[in-house]
TrEMBL record:
Name the record gives this protein: Imidazolonepropionase
SUPFAM superfamilies on file: Composite domain of metallo-dependent hydrolases, Metallo-dependent hydrolases
Domain Amidohydrolase-related: from-to ranges: 86-387
This protein's record includes keyword Transferase: no
NCBIfam families listed in its UniProt record: hutI
Length: 416
């Protein structure tokens, strides 16, 4: 029976990471899967819970059944994977998608030798403030659609290019219309209006701006770095956010060693993101704590910087996630397959580890158990690859291997 599953009317209207959509009118069997990553070690081999000759049944936006193809129950429609690989949808737990303009010239200058300093954030702030709501929404949905077609079914995104009470709240309102994983990053850099009064800006971020933003966000973040916010300021901002029910996550140790990672662990942040410059004490703190280390290979690629050492973290027992950090300055890629390939080639990860970190690892960084794995009861976020194995994501870098995507059981219209 041909696949007649309903497709999204428009991926622009979908909620990335949102609630399960209304029942789509029946179940879908995906069978003859050559290699299936479940990320449930009880279901298959190794940490990926790998099954061969497998099948999946999707029903009501969830995975209803997983097992050997020969034992698969009947469903309302059937998709024959013809021996291809199936993986969980990617979970991109770190992006900055509410912005206007781009920074091509800055990238060009960097590739001619100029270093990345994060000073360019302020030029995106200027462009973002000038843009109307429709422009910001259209930009956001363009990148979410790009992500979805590359297999990303859950996305976190942040404010941080507004830096006034009204602009930060506006960015979060727009983000929250498209995803539940929304992060308040008023503390991205000190707003230009407060250049001579950083303490006054921290008061704003922890006071009126937090009041306006907290209702629209789940997370609070701070860029803890020289030239942005120091450890004391970061602590004040994260603590104030936590007191309003927001869960901390931290931009930590991106450009230099610093207090960010250990602060994240101390405050039980869900994630410390970047983790590029780490001391042994930072690694030990992550290994002893519950904070996930989220590595962002697109950032080092696009800033021509030294990559974080994933091997060191994994060998210490740290939970590692991979994300794009998609933003117009330091990492303008929306592609999780690209990040997987770079992490394997440049950061000491095995293809299996990188796949896990890009799916289950991202879910851990968002404290989600319903996404990032294909096990009964989990969200039916499924990626069918044009490949016999997930290893091809690293083995065939730059090749568009995402053939089909289901988000919450609904088939995504692809560009092809
Ligand atoms: O995660 N490091 C701070 N923020 C972003 C960069 C944002 C920008 O350059 O516009 C990041 O890399
Ligand atoms: Fe970032």
């Amino acid at each position: 029976m041909p696949d007649t599953s309903p497709t999204h009317p428009s991926p622009h209207t979908r909620r990335q990471g949102g609630p399960v959509p209304p029942a789509d009118g029946g179940s879908t069997l995906i069978t003859d899967i050559g290699s299936l990553v479940t990320n449930n070690p009880d279901l298959g081999a190794g940490p990926l819970g790998l099954l061969t000759d497998a099948a999946l049944v999707l029903d009501g936006g969830e995975v209803a059944w997983v097992g050997p193809a020969a034992d698969a129950p009947a469903a309302d429609r059937r998709v024959d994977a013809e021996g291809r690989a199936v993986i969980p949808g990617f979970v991109d737990s770190h992006s900055h998608l509410v912005f206007a303009g781009d920074r091509t010239a800055e990238f060009n200058a960097r590739m001619s030798g100029r270093p990345y300093t994060a000073g360019g954030i302020r030029s995106t702030v200027v462009a973002t403030r000038l843009a109307d709501d429709d422009t910001l929404s259209a930009n956001l949905t363009t990148y979410l659609t790009e992500m979805l077609r590359q297999g990303t079914t859950t996305v976190e995104t942040k404010s941080g290019y507004g830096l006034t009470v009204e602009e930060e709240a506006r960015a979060l309102r727009i983000a929250a219309a498209h995803t539940d994983e929304v992060t308040y990053l008023g503390a991205h850099v000190v707003a230009p209006e407060y250049a001579d009064d950083p303490a006054g800006y921290v008061d704003l971020v922890t006071g009126p701006m937090l009041d306006a933003c907290a209702p629209h966000a789940r997370w609070v973040d701070v860029f803890c770095e020289q030239g942005a916010f120091d450890g004391d300021q970061a602590r004040a901002i994260l603590t104030a956010g936590a007191a309003r029910g927001l869960i901390p996550r931290v931009h930590a140790n991106q450009l230099t060693e610093g207090p960010g990672v250990q602060l994240a662990v101390e405050l039980d942040a869900a994630s410390a993101d970047h983790c590029t410059h780490l001391t042994d004490a930072d690694v030990a703190a992550l290994a002893d704590g519950t904070t996930v280390a989220t590595l962002l290979p697109g950032c080092e690629f696009s800033t021509r910087a030294v990559y974080p050492d994933a091997r060191r973290l994994l060998d210490a027992g740290v939970t590692v996630a991979l994300s794009t950090d998609c933003n117009p300055g330091s990492s303008f890629t929306s592609s999780m397959p690209f990040c997987v390939a770079v992490a394997v080639r440049e950061m000491g990860m095995t293809p299996d580890e990188a796949l896990w970190s890009a799916t289950a690892g991202g879910a851990a960084a968002l404290r989600r158990t319903d996404v990032g794995r294909l096990t009964p009861g989990a969200a039916a976020d499924v990626v069918l690859l044009e490949a016999p194995s997930h290893v091809h994501l690293a083995y065939r870098p730059g090749v568009p291997l995402v053939r089909d995507v289901w988000q919450r059981g609904v088939r995504v219209p692809m560009a092809h």
